Amino acid sequence: MIFPILTELFLGQSRTIGRPYYDFFLRIFGLPLLLLMGIGPLIAWRRASVRSLLKTLRWPIAAALIAGGALIAVGAGSSRPGLIAYTFCAFVLATIVVELVRGTRATGSLVQLVARNRRRYGGYVVHAAIVLLAIGIAGSSAYQTNREQKLAIGQSMTVAGHTVTYDGLEHGRSGVANETRAVLTLSGRENGTIRSGVNNYFTGDTSREVGIHTDWLRAEDTYVIFDQQQGKYVYFKVLIKPLVNLIWLAGFVFLAGSLVALWPDAREQRRLVARLALARG
To answer: Strand 177-188 to strand 162-173: parallel, antiparallel, or no bridges (unpaired)?
Structure first.
């Protein structure tokens, strides 16, 4: 987002960056960092060895391999970056579960475990939020389906198990624009009505109004874009983005983990008061 500003400031010309730029950094830096996020918390400071680390990681590695095999079996191997991202996510989630199980066995209670070390386990909740974010990004980009087709009234198109039927046009007028909306019926895996169209503003500008239908159960969004109209035909672009709503869920989980980590601990406050009193003395 700041790249065009910097290029204009230092080079005198504005340059924009697109999806290939972000895909490159996601694959080269994002995926390794995701993996390290699972490994890092399990390494004991100055007491780690290869043998102990492999012993600790045996269950997360097994979970990642099983998840990868299952994903290939259901056809998710069509995208190598997506498959790697999902496998790494399974690894990180398994490391979080392993840590919670080990800590709960030691204290006898999950609530007591978190209360004793809120920063650490609040951090694990934040890690889980990042995993949800990674799953949402991988699902909505690596496994999205899109199709373009021209439709006349009554005609349909099928995309990834969804059937989109063009029912007709609606015309309206607001205080700033003339509005045209195509009404479409969504059926198949999910049922509903989508309106997509264009606004022709009185200033001479136009804007595309994307129709969105959300399947909360699958965390999936269906986007319909009104491209252009030629006579009785309208050109539509339909995009199916699976798991995209996990990105929103990740934000709420991130906030929850941050609250757990930042919540004041009375014991820490008492220790701090004691240390300050000792220092003053």
So the answer is: antiparallel
